[in-house]
From TrEMBL:
Protein name, UniProt field: Light-harvesting 3 complex beta chain
PROSITE patterns recorded: ANTENNA_COMP_BETA
GO CC list: plasma membrane; plasma membrane light-harvesting complex
Designated gene of the protein: pucB
Keyword Cytoplasm: no
Pfam families membership: LHC (PF00556)
Function: Antenna complexes are light-harvesting systems, which transfer the excitation energy to the reaction centers.
Family: Belongs to the antenna complex beta subunit family.
Keyword Magnesium tagged: yes
Length: 50
């Protein structure tokens, strides 16, 4: 019989799913900040769109 605490396709509990999701969101935000900073540096130090 299936466990009622598990989420169907992954087999994770709700708490485990939320933990993974929050880590994924935080990693995406950090990546986005690094990418924005890299684009700012590329704009400053190159004749990009000038």
């Amino acid at each position: 019989m299936s466990d009622i605490d598990k989420v169907y396709p992954t087999g994770l509990t709700i708490a485990e799913s939320q933990e993974i999701h929050s880590s994924l969101i935080q990693g995406t935000q950090i990546f986005g900040m690094i990418a924005a900073f890299a684009h700012l540096l590329a704009y400053i130090y190159s004749p990009w769109l000038k």
